[in-house]
Amino acid sequence: MRVGVLGAGVIAFSPVGYLQGMAKMGSELTLEAVCDPVREHGDRAQREFGFKAVYTRLDDMLERSDVEAVINLTPIPVHGKTCLEILDSGRHVVVEKPIATTMAEANAIIKLAEERRLTVVVAPPNMLQPNRQEIRRLIGEGAIGKVAFARVRSSHGGPAAGNWPLDPTWFYQEGSGPLFDMGVYGIHDITGLLGPARRVVAFSGITEPVRHFRGGPFKAKKIEVTADDNTLLMLDFGGATFAVVDGTFNVNAARSPRIEIFGREGTINVADNWDLPPGAPTYEVFRLDAAPGVDGWITPRDRGLRGSQDRHRELGRAVMVRHLVECVREGTKPVLSAEHARHALEIMLKAIESARTGRALELTTSF
Question: Which tens digits make up the pLDDT trace of 334-361?
């Protein structure tokens, strides 16, 4: 597949980002073009990864290049607009999370892709991970009984807390924020494992009206925070099954599991895949019916998961590019579907509304 990359910034060059993983895909891909409004960023991608052409305008890349799909790595506020331009030109899309920032844009993306018979793959990649697929199977088979509730840790301390190489001001501005940037992971995870949610209720606010960048080239810069930087939401899946998810730039450190799912007959803990030491299990199960003298915690048999997980991690976020290639080649619907991403977006938008109105809100989308 001949691909173009739109946006040659941090997520493109990160060791767990796209370009290094795409380079490992070999003959599956031709790196046709890269586009970034900062010419130096595109030139670097061409120099390090061998893209055939560099552009600074999306419409030029779409008009002049021979790409079949575009990897959309633009900032959050323009995901919807750029996806629609790409689809309208007849190209498949892999887009970073979230799919858009309005339901109108998300609906338009799905409608246009259907009309043009194009494939859309939407980050995050979590539900492609082998442990997520295995955990979904276990829950579906009743391994921990009826699920009562789940806790999902979705966040980190925010780009201002570390050594972010580019100006991260926009992460803290209206139209972006940690709910769209980080909460989206937990929302995709828990809805991917339990299915679509029915209602959402949330609390949200700004913990500090001014943020100080702690490291990197913008160290000591101060910015006004205009997007809520601390959101906690609860999802209702029906039948008294609930989940709590965070979307915040205030998790500077944690030792708890990434996901805890509590059922009537047991518990599933899901590890943070990126921080696992070699050989560590990616999840564990507690069973109430464990044999006498056994504490009930079970490290599941590998079933090939660790090797698959390591291969997944080796590609980083480029696993989504491979997923696109496979879906187009085989004519299958993506696991990381636009419909699932639209459901996650509705949850986020209604969480914001819920926090401002003090009401639990019904969800209308599914996947």
Answer: 999 999 999 999 999 999 999 999 999 9
With b for 16 or more beta-carbon neighbours within 10 A and e for fewer, the 14-34 pattern comes to: eeebbbbbbeebeeebebbbb
Do 103 and 136 fall into the same domain? no
In a shared domain, residues 60 and 140: no
Among 249, 94, 100, which Cα is nearest to 168's? Answer: 249
At position 189, the amino acid (one-letter code) is D
- For residue 115, the surrounding DSSP H or E stretch is helix 103-116
What's the rounded Cα separation, in Å, for the pair 71 and 157? 27
79 and 109 belong to one structural domain: yes
What does the block give as tokens for 176? 């972006």
Express each pLDDT in 13-60 by its tens digit. 999 899 999 999 999 999 999 999 999 999 999 999 999 999 999 999
Measured CA to CA, the distance from residue 94 to residue 123 in angstroms comes to 8
Are residues 87 and 166 located together in one domain of the fold? no
The domain total for the chain is: 2
**DSSP 3-state of 10:** helix
